[in-house]
Amino acid sequence: MEIIRYAELRAEPWRNSGGVTRELASHPKAASAQDGAWDWRVSIAEVSKAGAFSAFPGMDRVLTVIEGELLLLTVDGAEHPLEKYRPFRFSGEADTASALPTGDIRDLNVITRNGAFKGYTSIIELSKKRAHPVFGGQLGILLQGQATVSPGTAGDAAAAESGAGAGAAGSGEGDAPEATPVSAEPETLARYDAVVGSDSRTPEILGRGFLAVVSIDRVAG
User: Residue 201 gets which letter from DSSP?
Assistant: First the structure.
């Protein structure tokens, strides 16, 4: 079981100076979070200034506002008001700009290379009674509230098999910066900490609040 501690991640400025990004995981690992040498990347950005987004040709993006009220995104001339916890998919090569009508925001970004991987983001409400599993090819990111994570007992028989997210986060082909191995005891998650999924002793998250589940699937072909 591995946890990526948000507080330990390095903030990197955007290429257009409109904010900073902290990379949670990418594949293959690049020298910089901004150089686009990876096939997929999961990151959290702090947006403090309206302006143009950096282009990522050949990429698909899913953006979710996770802190703040509203991001007004203009994609190829069309305006899209993005409210908190509502994932929005768009092309990385589109002419994209943002406005901040309610102030600074923080967003979760999933970027995948077209034809190689497909990324998905789901927002779920946690429960103290029923644990939420994080499978191979997934990251579970605590957005709000209090939660703990423990290694589960399910999935041991499938440890040698690759799931639908083979080549993605937690499957051995994705790189998580400074992921921390933890014991079998429950570990407390801080805000924006990410749990790396596994199909062996699948991590289970219990608590109150909201969790982003990011899935990275390899495109067949």
Answer: S
pLDDT at 178: 53
CB 3 within 8 A of CB 194: yes
To 10 degrees, the CA torsion angle through 191, 193, 198, 204?
-30
pLDDT of 156 higher than 90: no
Instruction: Say if CB 20 and CB 13 are below 8 A apart.
Output: yes
pTM assigned to the model: 0.85
Mean pLDDT of 56-71: 96
Q: How far apart are CA 61 and CA 2, in angstroms?
A: 25
Q: Is the peptide bond before 28 cis (omega within 30 degrees of 0)?
A: yes
Residue by residue, DSSP assigns 1-33 as -EEE-GGGSPPEE-TTSSEEEEEEEEES--SST
DSSP string, 143-165: EEEEEEEEE-STTGGGTTS--TT
φ, ψ for residue 15, nearest 5 deg: -65, -30
